[in-house]
Amino acid sequence: MRNFLIMLGTTLFLTTACQAQHMEPTKDTTPHTATQHVQQQGSPAVYPVTKSDAEWRALLSPMEFHILREKGTERAFTGKYYGFDEAGSYHCAGCGAELFSSDSKFDCGSGWPSFWTPANDAAVHSERDERYGMVRDEVLCARCGGHLGHVFDDGPRPTGLRYCINSASLRFIPAEDLEKEGYGEYSRLFEEANQGNKKL
Ligand SMILES: [Zn+2]
Question: Is residue 33 domain-resident?
Fold first, then answer.
C-alpha cells in the first residue's frame, strides 16, 4: 500500500511537472514578445479605412493590391526601397498613413526594407501568421489593415525588432516634400481617415 501511495505521488508529481513544462514554452516562445501590438483576441481587428476589393484595385497597382490586400510578398532584392537610404517618411501605399521613418531604416541584408521601429506606436498592427508552416508576426497598416510584411525579434537596438516590409506596400515621401506637398496626391485618401480621427 505504501509503495502504491509513493507511486501515486510520483505520478502526480510527474503529471504536474509535465503540465508545467507544457506551460513554460507556451509562455516563452510566444511570438507576441516580438511586438506589443499583436492582436490577442479572437475577434478580427477593425480598421478606420475600409474599401471593397474593387475600390482597392482601382487605387492600387496589381503588385500593390497583391501585397496589401492578398498578403503577398515581393521577391527579395527586387523592391524599390531596398538599398534606398534617402531621408523622409514611408507611408502606406493603400491609405497614405505614415508608417516608418528613414531614421529607423537599416540594412540587414534580407532583401527587403527593414526598420527597427514604426513611426509611432499606433502606426502598425500585428497579428499571428501561421501560413506556410511558420509562426510569424504579420505587420499590417493600423489604418487600413493592408499587409506590410512581418516583424521579427532579431533586430538591432534599441528595440531589438526587425520590421521586414515589402517596398510595394510603401510610398516614400522625401523630407523636403512632406510639408510642401501637404501629402499632395494622398490628400483624397487621407480624407476618410481624418474624418475618423476627428471623432476621437
Ligand atoms: Zn494603410
Answer: no
Q: Tell me the residue range of the domain where 89 lies.
A: 40-198
What's the 156 CA to ligand 1 centre distance in angstroms? 25
Question: pLDDT tens across 122-166, in order?
Answer: 999 999 988 888 889 999 999 999 999 999 999 999 999 999 999
Residue 146 alpha carbon to ligand 1 centre in Å: 5
> Which amino acid is it at 193?
A
Q: Is residue 17 in a domain?
A: no
CATH number (domain holding residue 120):
2.170.150.20
Query: How many distinct structural domains can be found in the chain?
Result: 1
Is residue 164 flagged as an active site residue?
yes
Say how many Å lie between the CA of residue 103 and the centre of ligand 1.
Answer: 20
* Catalytic pick among 95, 141, 144, 164: 164
Distance in Å, CA 189 to ligand 1 centroid: 10
